[in-house]
Protein 1
Amino acid sequence: MNIFIGVRLPKEAKPYWTNQLQQFADRFNKEKIKEIQFGKQDIRGSESITLIDLKDCVPTQLRFTNKWDMLGFVQGYNEVQNTTTSRLNEFLI
């Protein structure tokens, strides 16, 4: 699965955040999702996580106020083993 990181990560913590984003992306079903994009994706200037399916469509896009909210969501999502309340679950393995 491809990931695109379109957000500037802090230099001293770049390996950590890159790993967190990769862990998040690895949780998705590769038979349904071919790419995940992190960063500024829309004209409103907010940060988002965008899923791209095999037909190059966007089935889900999560928007955040800033990159720290987005990174915090990813970090928290990685820490939770069995989440059942997420709209993203239909795309998980």
Note: The chain has a mean pLDDT of 85.
Protein 2
Amino acid sequence: MSKFDVDGFSELKIARLNLERLYFKKISSKIRQFEEMPRLKILCGINGGLPFNCLMTDIYSGCKSIGKICYGNCSAAEYWIEKKHNFGRPVLNIYEEKLFIDSVLKLPKSQRWLRQG
């Protein structure tokens, strides 16, 4: 039976998170040489190229540096790193008002909310 700390994480879970952080710190110097994150058009829903109608493109592509990503584990960071892009250097995506409004108007009438990313 494992011990738990104040937040309810087992010692094993904490050890795994620490190993993941070590891995990301080890590869962070290589990542600095990767390409800039792609600048995407900010669109909504399936007609805008997203997997669900409740989603829209993030305002920025990328996020925190590799050593500071959430809990040392981020599927978006892993995806872009595998594609040789520097996830830790965010770039502002492209907002074209007409394209964005068109993508909103193509959403189903029943779609009442959106989520970035």
Note: The first strand starts at residue 55 and ends at 56.
Protein 3
Amino acid sequence: MITLNSGLFAVYFALLEFLGIKDVPSAETQIAIPYIPLPPILFILSLIAFVSALIPWFTKLPLNFPEEIADLRDKAILVKYSGAITGLGFLVAALFITIFIFLEILRT
């Protein structure tokens, strides 16, 4: 997901140029203009969430208390899961906004 996300960041601007956002300043595209900066910001937030889900935790593990090891493991899994879900949420929101912008540009 990290490589997909960082690739989408670059492709977004290339597609905007390809669709000719600078050449189509009509009244119909004025609806999409305020939303243009949102997808890159959401891509960056998604990238941060995915990377934070992969960062390892440095904690002291007590080897003589198996319950505490299980609790630390459950906490680490919960943090990784919530980071992945948050990143996916940002990514899906960015993709929906991107599709909306591109459709508004193509409509003109």
Note: The mean pLDDT is 85.
Protein 4
Amino acid sequence: MLDLQGLSMGEAIKEYLLTMGEGYAYGFWKLWRQLKPRSNYASVHRYFWLLKEIPLIVYVRSEPGENRFNRRLYSVVSGMETSVAWKDPVRALYPRRRPPYKH
């Protein structure tokens, strides 16, 4: 099993994809919820979307899933393995346009 302890979700997805070669959101979520039992699939799915938009991951192919939905498999974009965006993909995609408010 992957050691995802202490990693942000973005970094954990990177480790999952690098270890597996290619993977899908539900497959990652099954591992992630063992570490973070209160996590939900919607947040994992959103992170895959964010990582694709940056782009840190790329869609590779689809394959039949366990139910009527196909699995969408992704891999890490070559050369992006060391990007700082893995730590906080939300901030990477939506950087602050002005300094934070001072209280």
Note: Residues 3 and 12 are 9 Å apart (CA to CA).
